[in-house]
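Incident review: delayed structure delivery

Summary: a single-chain prediction request sat in the queue longer than the usual turnaround. Root cause was a stuck worker, restarted by the on-call engineer. No data loss occurred. The affected request and its eventual output are reproduced below so the record is complete for anyone auditing the incident later.

Affected input:
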Amino acid sequence: MSHYDTLEVVSHASAETIRAAYRSLMQRHHPDKHPGDAAMAARAAQLTQAYEVLSEPARRAAYDQGLARALATPERGAARDAGAGTAAAAAEALAARRARLAAVRGQARPPRRPVPKWLWVVSVTGVVLAGLWWGQSRVLAPPTQELASLRRLVEAPDTPEAQRRELLGRKEAWMARDPTLRRLTQEAQARDRAARAFVLIDTPLRVVVGGAGGGTGAWSAAEIEIPEIDLIVGSFESARTLAHLDRHRARLVRELGERLAREDASVLARPYAREQLTRIVLESVNQSIGADARQEYPSTWWESPGRHGVAEVVLRQGFELLRLQAFR
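Output delivered after worker restart:
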């Protein structure tokens, strides 16, 4: 079974389709949802391995080439079997050709036709393009293989933290020397960040802020409306964190509303209110799931040091604040 079969997608599926399939399947088969189920754990490991290969363009291209060769092997074998069955006919044809040559031996050979110029041009162009392709593959293959080896070492659980950071330094050195490799790595990093995104709310959240006497200044009470909140979890144990957020989404939203109700409404009316609201959401969610975003964790392939819990809060549509009661 190929990696495409594992993720239940076709071989020409786009990167977005593969990412969506992986996240959907992991939601159903994650070991945290099936404690003690060895089959589910094995299935989750297969999904992770398949996504790691197909989510990186270079690794996916190499995998597709190997898959194509494996599928073509039986056809070549069949062709050899068919050719063996016509060996006698080939021998007879060769004997007939030799007889014809013997019959015309001694006669003058016809003059050779000159090779058309266009054929020379096509041949030389093909050789030049083949040389350029070979040279480019020689340049790109070693860095790609080196990065794959570095990543395996960084993600190994028994690799010391000091060695992880040294390996990540070598990764940065490779990227600095090769613009194409840097672009491919940045694209893979963007895909990884998208895979660590979690939608906390996608319908407007309305909360009365400062209504319990907490408001001061010109805004003693106000209603805040937040259309959407997205969370980006850290790269350390991201799958476990995403599964935890999904299981406790309703509780997290409720506790965030309670936290906002206790805030000072006047603070959210200041010029830097968006940054203040982002901090409130970050602290509330991490406190609810028992994570500390300020603590440093072992480095990962994408972050050094690694981050655990919710690392970023994205307010794509901002928020609105409506004053309910002026301070008296």
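Verification: The domain at 3-76 is CATH 1.10.287.110 (Helix Hairpins).
Action items: add queue-age alerting; document worker restart procedure.
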